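Hi Q.,

Before the meeting this afternoon, I wanted you to have the nicotinamide-adenine-dinucleotide prediction in hand. No need to reply - just skim if you have a minute. The sequence and ligand are here:
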Amino acid sequence: MTPTARILVTGGAGFIGSHVSRALLASGRQVTVLDNLSMGRREAVPEGARFVHGDIRDRAAVSDALTDIDSVIHLAAQVTIRGSFDRFYEDLDTNLMGTANIVRSIDPARVRWFTLASSMAVYADCPAPMPIAEDYTTQPLSPYGVGKLAAEQVCRQMLATAGVPLTVLRFFNTFGPGQSYTPYVGVITIFVTRLLRNEAPVIFGDGEQQRDFVHVGDITDGVLGSLGRATGTFNLGSGRSTSLNALSRLLCDRLQAGAQPAHEPARDGELRYSVADVAAARRAFGYAPSRTLETNLDDVINDVKARPSK
Ligand SMILES: NC(=O)c1ccc[n+]([C@@H]2O[C@H](COP(=O)([O-])OP(=O)(O)OC[C@H]3O[C@@H](n4cnc5c(N)ncnc54)[C@H](O)[C@@H]3O)[C@@H](O)[C@H]2O)c1
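Predicted structure with the ligand bound:
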């Protein structure tokens, strides 16, 4: 196993990055966080981490953040499928060129591991509700997916040339405490926030689209479990599928909400069936997602309730 003691977490002030940074510190590693706080919050960066307030597209900020680093976990991104149609230039600039900027800034004599956060959005739509493995066709439906797939390919090519081991992790729909509320990302956080405001959750399309909701604790376990151990490309999901109609029923029951979901026309870029086959991650580094939607929704509900403005 490659030693991974001093880690740069890009996007470490964000939802997944703050959980990953906390877990790395708890495992005894040193952590530097690079984040421009466009979505993340300074308070979410755990105590004990060095914080560099900067942009992944800025070479000076990236060089500063890479000081004394032996591994990179690259999570910083513009994270919105629907929003990436309106902001495709900015999306690609961050998700593709920002990634390229980090890769070109790395000194391969010092950096011995690179983990890239990718997404289920790289896959082609699936004709049936079946789990998809990593060799399933990649044909993104959105600029966000295009950027993520291109970032994967740039990392594979240039890090192989440099001799830096790479893990690409394709996260599925991640839920849990600490996700910022935006109208675009994180359907569970969005639905909970709306229901607590007595507003109807909005389902785009008929609601029978299937999603793989995976808890941020399982994603964190997958990121740390693969670090220094497993190169290659891996799905990180729960392996379970849930329709948006079923999700909204579950949340309405849990919150005893009066509001019923409203349906609006389906939007571009959304996959019909998106469920992970996680067998490869299980084999390679013992990935074993265990936190179910039913038993972990209260985390999100309590987190949203505790926020100052609902
Ligand atoms: N949340 C999900 O369901 C999900 C699913 C698939 C993949 N992912 C991927 O996981 C990673 C983390 O996502 P998240 O849900 O924590 O999102 P997030 O928005 O909470 O975190 C992203 C962080 O990156 C920072 N950032 C954005 N642009 C930046 C830039 N140019 N320079 C520096 N920092 C910048 C933001 O401020 C934020 O803190 C992303 O790469 C995302 O594409 C997330």
